[in-house]
Amino acid sequence: MKCCFQILIALIWVQFLSAADATPDEPVRSAVSGEVFTDKVVVLKVGKDSLMNKHSFKYWRKVMRRAQDEKARAIIFDIDTPGGYAGETADLITRVMPDLTIPSIAFVNPQATSAGSMIAFGCDKIYMHPRGTIGSTGIVSGGGGEIDPVMRSKIESLFSSYVKIVAKEKGRNPDVMKAMMFREQEHEFADGKVKVAKGELLNLIADEAVLMVEGKPLLADGICKDIDAVLAAEGMEGVTVVLAEPKGFDAFASWVGIVSPMLISVGLLALFMEFKTPGLGIFGLVALVAFALFFVGNNMDGNVSGSWL
User: Fold this and answer.
1) What's the pLDDT band for 249 if we cut at 50, 70, 90?
2) How far is CA 247 from CA 59, 186, 277, 292, in A?
3) What's the number of CA atoms in the CB half-sphere (13 Å) around residue 251?
4) Using H for helix, E for strand and C for coil, what is the string for 278-297?
């Protein structure tokens, strides 16, 4: 039995090394069952768990690259999320989305909280659901604990520069996103119609997001009840819409990214129980399956925790 577990540990270690060397930007394997994106609008759903799974960001990069290569009409991020990883979101809006030559549109449907608001901020256009909310982008620790004050200052300084870069490229007021992200000072927008007290974070409802300030909307370009209304607002009525969702190996890697903590916990507990009950074997099998799922899935597409927005 010990020999079997030595082999198991060796296999796990090999899978771990392979995962570290995996290439993240391999071609799209099964974006939408091979459907061509040419002259179509590609919709990427940003759901509850999307921004807490690093596979999502890698999958979106693949789809965006393919949509651009195949000359899609536009990409719409259909956003309904409480937030997620900070670093991956920053990379997406500062390094990936700016290189798109096709329009990017955010549809806040209905919640773009935290990192979700950053995704919207990085798009060319933003539309709000009538009951939509966007904001509350303060940086928190992925583990739920307090961030060291010096480290927090470094992170916030870095994200402040990200905000200025994206705001300049998209023609937006950087103070709006700063008010969503930082609590150190009070803010006032739209002739006092929107106020944020010191110590609070800005969160806009749809009617506030579309308020006009010096001839430009405060943040959002309009209010729409659904994707069809967004298309109409952009003059793309009747254009075919393609929902890009992970399929096959992409779907498996995405699932592993979500359940990875549980797989590790089950594997370690089963391994402990196997050593406590020699000769039974069932716990060893459970540990083998749990670790195999974890490392094979992450070998396809690694997922590691980090800071969250």
Assistant:
1) low
2) 10, 46, 40, 20
3) 9
4) CCCCHHHHHHHHHHHHHHHH
